[in-house]
Amino acid sequence: MAILVGLVLAVVGFVAGTGILGGIRTSMGLEYWSTDMSWSVGYPVALIGWLIGVGGWKYWAVEWFGGKAATPPKGVKRYFEWNMDHKVIGIQYGVTFVVLFLLSGLTAMLIRFELMNSGMQLFTEDQYNSAMSFHGIGMVAVAVAIMLGAFGNYIVPLQIGARDMAFPRVNALSYWLVPPVAIMLIIALLIGGWDTGWTAYPPLSVLTKSGQVLFNLAVITFGLVSILGGINFIATIIYERAPGMTWGRLPIFVWGAFAGSLIAFFFTQGFAAGLLMILLDRVVGTSFFHAAEGGSPILYEHVFWFYSHPAVYVMVLPAFGAVLEVLAHMSRKPLYAYRWVVGALLGIVAISGVVWAHHMFTSGMEDYLHAPFLVLTEMISIPTGIIFLSAIGTIWAGRLWMRTPMLFALAFIFNFTVGGLTGIYLADVPTDIHLHDTYFVVAHFHYTIMGGEIFALFAALYYWFPKMTGRQFNETLGKIHFWIMFIGFQLVFIPMFQVGVKGMNRRVADYPEAYEDFNRFISWSGFLLGISFIFFAANMVLSWVRGERAVANPWGASTLEWQVSSPPPEHNFEGQPVIQGGAYEYGVPNAPAHARMGTAAATENV
Amino acid sequence: MNRHLWIAGILWVVFTALALAGAALMNPFPTVGAEEAEFSDHAFRLMTYMGAPVFGFVMAALLYSVLRFRSGGPGEDGPPIRGVGAVPRVWLLTTTTLAVVVMIYPGLTGLAELRSDRTHDLEVDVTGFRWAWVVQYPEGFASQELVLPVDQRVKFNVTAPAGDVLHSFWVPAFRLKIDAVPGQITNLYITPNELGDGATDAAYRVQCAELCGLYHARMQMPVRVVTAEEYQAWVAEKAGK
Amino acid sequence: MAAAVSHSHEHADPVAHAWHRVRINRLGLWLFLISDGALFAIFAASRFYIAGTAIDPHLNQLLGLAITSLLLLSSFSAYRAETAFAHGNTAHGRTMLLATILMGLLFVGGVAYEWSIAEFAASEVYGTAFFSMTGMHAFHVVTGLLFLAVIWARSGGGRYSQGPAVWPVTAVVIYWHFVDVVWVFFYPTLYLLK
Ligand code: HEA
Ligand code: HEA
Ligand code: CUA
Ligand SMILES: [Cu+2]
C-alpha cells in the first residue's frame, strides 16, 4: 500500500519536475522535453515523492512541521513500508538484494546463452552490451550492499548488545533509496539500455544513449545508500556497545562490518563524483572528459577507481568477518590470531585507498605511476594473507560440524585463494598488459566476488537464517544447493582463465571461432550453476513458510545474538546484557561466558 | 597433534609438486609471436611456480582439516589454540618475503625491462575510431591490415580522434596492449620474431580491448608478420597505388 | 575509546541519555562532513588535472574577495548564535541567526552575479572547473541556508535553550562552518593561483 503511494507520488514528482523544466525550456524557445536533462531534473523530485509516499513523511518528516509521527504497524505489513527497526530493515535489504541477485544472475544466463557459439544467437550487439552492463552493475550493487545491508543491520546490533542502530531513521531512509536504484536500472533497459558496462568510462558514456543518464542517477543514489549505511555502522559500533563489550571482545563480524563501513563512507564519493561529472558533461556541457577542449578521459578512470578499487573491500571485508565467524563457531575453537585479524582488516582499509591505478596499467597514464601502484597492490596480499592464516588456524584440529553454512565458509577459503592469487598476475605490470580486459580478469573477479563474497553471503545466510526467520532451513536442499553451486562454479570460471590468456577479450558479444569450444563448455557449466539457485530459492521459500520452528541457539554458538529467542524480541534484549569475556572461548578452561543476560526486572525503570 | 602436522606437511609437498608439475607441463598461451610475448609468458610461468606452494599450503590444510577434524554437532569443543606467539610472526615474515620477491622479480625488473629499449626500426601510426583501425605507414599510405616485417623493432603511435572514445590496441600474439586515448598519443614497442598470419591464427589480430560501444566486439584488424622481402614487396605495392 | 563504551540505552537518567544522543549525532555529523569533504576534494583535484593552475583573467577579483569576506564573517555570527543559545539567550541567538542567513544570501547572490557576468563558457576547462566547483559549493550554501531558516523559525519559545537541547543549532552551525572551510580552500584554488 505504502509502496503504491510512493510510486504514485514518484510519478507525480517526476511529472512536476519535468514540467517545470519543460516550462522554462519552452519559454527559452527550446523543446519541452530533453531526455538527458528532463531525467536529471525529474528524478530527484520523483525520489522525494517516493520517500514521502513510502512513509518518510508519516513516520519522520511530519515532526519537522510540528506534527506527530505515526506508530508503525506490526506483523507482515511492516516489511512493506518505512520502518525503523533494524531487524525489519535487515530483512528488507536481504530480500530485495536476493531478488536483484537472481535477476542479475538470470541476465548472466542470457549472456552465456549468447556466448555459447561464435556468431550472434539471442541478442543484437546492442542488446548484448545492455545485458552485460546490467549484469555487472546489478551484481556489484548486490555485492557492495547485501552483506552490510542484510546481516550488518540485523546482526551487528544484536552482537554488540544494542537495542537498535545509532540512527534508525537514517537507516530506514537508506533502505528506501534502494528500490529506486533497481527501478531506474530497469527503466534504463526499457528505454534502450546503455553500453558502457558497470564502469561507465567516458567519452563513451558522455556520447552514448540516454539510458546512461538513468544509470548515473541510479548509481549516485546507490552511493548515498552506501555512505549513509557506512556512517550508521561506524556510529553504532563506536557508541552502542553494551557494557563490557570492549574492542578486543567484539565478534569478528562486527570488525568486518566496521572496516567495510570505514571504506564505504570515505571512498564512495569517487564513483558519485565521476558519474556527476559525466552528467555535467552531458547536460550542462562542461568539458571534464572532452579531449578537444582540454578535458581528459583518464581523469575519470582515476576518480572512478579511487572508489571502485576500495569498493571490492567493502564487499569482502564483511564477508571475511562472516566467514571467520562461521568457522570459529562451527569448529568450536577460539578464533585463531584474533588480534592479527583485526590488524589485518584495518591494514587493508589503510592500503585500499592507494592501489587504484592497477586497473589502469594500459590506460596511457603517466609511466612513473606504474611502479608504485604495482608495489602497493602486491602489498595488500600481506594483510589478506593474515585472514587466511586465521581461517586455517581456526579449523585446524577443530571439531568441524559440516552443516551447510560451514560448507560455504570452507568453499570461500578455496575460492578466494584462487581469486587472490590470480590477482597477483594482474597486479604485475608485465603480465597485466596482456591479461587486462581479457576473460582472465573476468575469472579473477568472479572468483573473488562470487567465489569469495557470494559464497560468504550464503554461509551467512544459512547460518543466520534460523535467527532471522525463526525457522530452520532444510539441510538436504541446502547441501544440494552447495554442491551444485560449488562444482558448477569451478567449471564455469576455471576455463575462463584459460580462454582469457588465449586471447579472448571481455565485454564482447561475439568472438573468433577459435574460442568456441571453451565457451560452449563454460555456458553449459553456467546453466548447471544456475540450476543450483532453484534449490536455493525453493529452500528459502519453503523453509520460511513452513520450516520447523528454530530454537534460540541451534548452533550452540557463544555470541550474543544466539542468547535471545529466534527471532529476537522487539527490543532485542529483555534487560541489559553485560559482556564479561571474549566471543570465542570454546574449550578454554574456566572461561567466563561471553555475556551475562540482564533480566527485565533489573532495568524496569528504563 | 604432531602426526597431524606431519601428514598435512606431506600433503603440502605433494600438492605443491602436483601444482608445479601441472604448471611446467601446461601451455595455456596463445602463439608466441614476439620477444615481448616470451617475456610475458616467462613472468606468467614464474608467478605460477611461486604461487604453487602457497596454493598447496592452503589446500593441504583445508583438505586435511575437512577430512580429519569432523564432528557431528556442537557437543565437544576443540583445543583452545589462540594463535599468539611465533606462528603468526613466521607467517607474516614468509608472506611478506614472498610478496616482496614477486614485486621485484618479475614485477619491477620486468617493468624496467619493458621500458629499457626505446630504439626502433620502423614506426607506424595507429588510429582507432568507432569501430575500425587504420595504420598509417611511413611511406605515406594507410592500411586496414597490420603487416610487419619479422625481427624488426616497431614503434606504434596509437591514438583516437578527439571526438571519439577510448579504444585499446592489442595483439594477443604479442601480449602487449595500450589504450587509444582521444587527443593523446600513446606508444608501444614490439619486436615480432615469428612469421604469422591472422587468417589462420586468431592470436594474430588487432583486437580492440576497451569497451567502445555498439561494435566493440567487431573492432578487429588482421595481422600478418612476413619476411623482409615480402614486406618490401607489400609496401611497394601499397605505396604504388 | 574504552571510556566511550556506553550503557547504550538503559539510561535511568533522561539527561544523560540526551547527552549520549548528542555524542552519537555529533560523530554522525562529522563522518558525514568528512565524506562530503572527500567529494569536494575530488572536484578540487580534478580542477588541477584538467586545467592545471591556469586562471581566467576575466574573473572579477573584487567580487570574489567581497563574497569570501562575507562568508567568513557569517561563520562568526553563526558561532555567536550558537553560544547565545547555549547560554539560554534566545533573542540574541535569533538575531545572530538572521545575520548569518543574510550574509549567506548575499554570498549566493554574489556567486550568481559572478556566473551571469562570467566571460568564459562552461565548455572551456577553466569554466568547467569554475562552474562545477562554485555550483556545488553554492548548492551546499543553499541547503545550509534552508537549515538555518528552519532553525530560526522553530527557535522561538526557548526550544533550543541550554544543555543537549542546543544540539540542532550546533549541528547546523557546524555544517555552516564546514561549508565555509570548503570555500577557504576553493577560493584560492579558483581565484588566486598563478
Ligand atoms: C571482492 C572483490 C575483489 C577482491 C577481494 C580483489 C582482490 C584483488 N585484486 Fe581484483 N578485481 C576485482 C575484484 C576483486 N579483487 C574486480 C571486480 C575487478 C575488475 C573490475 C573491472 O574491470 O570490471 C578486479 C580487477 C583487478 C585488477 C585489474 C585487472 C585489469 O583490469 O587489468 C587487478 C590488478 O592488479 C587486481 C588485483 C587484485 C589483488 C592483488 C587483490 C588482492 O586483494 C588479493 C589478495 C589475496 C591473496 C593474494 C590470496 C591470499 C593470500 C595468501 C594465501 C598469502 C600469501 C600470498 C602472497 C604473499 C602472494 N584486481
Ligand atoms: C556479485 C558479482 C557477480 C556474480 C555473482 C556474477 C555471476 C555470474 N556471472 Fe558475472 N559479472 C560481474 C559480477 C558478477 N557475476 C561483473 C561485475 C561483471 C563485469 C561487467 C562489466 O564488464 O561491466 C560480470 C561479467 C560477466 C561476464 C562477462 C561479460 C562480458 O565481459 O561480456 C560473464 C560471462 O560469462 C559473466 C557470467 C556470470 C555467470 C555465469 C554468473 C553465475 O554465477 C550466475 C548464476 C545464476 C544465477 C544467480 C541466477 C539463476 C537463476 C535462475 C536459474 C532462475 C531462478 C529464479 C527464481 C527461482 C526466481 N559475468
Ligand atoms: Cu574500440 Cu572497443
Ligand atoms: Cu582493484
TL;DR of this structure?
The complex is a heterotrimer of chains A (606), B (241) and C (194). Chain A has helices at 2-27, 35-59, 86-115, 125-160, 168-176, 178-190, 204-207, 211-239, 252-267, 269-283, 297-331, 338-352, 370-379, 381-395, 404-427, 429-435, 439-469, 475-502, 516-546; strands spanning 400-401, 578-579, 595-596.
Overall description:
The complex is a heterotrimer of chains A (606), B (241) and C (194). Chain A has 606 residues and is mainly α. Helix content of chain A is 66%, strand content 1%. In chain A, strands 2-3 form a two-stranded antiparallel ribbon. Chain B is of the alpha+beta class. Chain B has two domains: 94 residues; 119 residues, Immunoglobulin-like (Sandwich). The radius of gyration of chain B is 25 Å and the shape is elongated. The termini of chain B are far apart. In chain B, the strands form two sheets. In chain B, strands 5, 7, 8, 10, 11 and 12 form a six-stranded mixed β-sheet that branches. In chain B, strands 4-3-2-6-9 form a five-stranded mixed β-sheet, with no helix packed on it. Chains in contact: A-B, A-C. Chains A and C meet through helix 8, helix 9, helix 10 and helix 11 of A and helix 1 and helix 4 of C. Strand 1 of chain A pairs parallel with strand 1 of chain B. The structure holds heme-A (2 copies), dinuclear copper ion and copper (II) ion. One heme-A sits at the interface of chains A and B.
Summed up, the helix count of chain C is 5
Poorly predicted ranges of chain C: 1-9
Average of per-residue pLDDT values of chain C: 89
How can the largest sheet of chain A be summarized? 2 strands, antiparallel
| Main sheet record of chain C | none
Structural class of chain C: mainly alpha
Q: What is the CA-atom radius of gyration of chain A, in angstroms?
A: 24 Å
Strand order of the largest sheet of chain A: 2-3
Count interface residues per chain for the largest interface: A-B, 94 and 86 residues
Question: Which bin fits the share of residues in helices of chain A?
Answer: 55-70%
Count of strand segments of chain C: 0
Whole-Å distance between the termini of chain C?
45 Å
The CATH architecture designation of the domain at 77-194 in chain C is Up-down Bundle
Say what the CATH topology of the domain at 77-194 in chain C is.
Four Helix Bundle (Hemerythrin (Met), subunit A)
The arrangement of helices and strands of chain A along the chain is HHHHHHHHHHHHHHEHHHHHEE
The tally of domains of chain A stands at 2
Shape of chain C: elongated
Give me the oligomer status: heterotrimer
In CATH, the topology of the largest domain in chain A is named: Cytochrome C Oxidase, Chain A
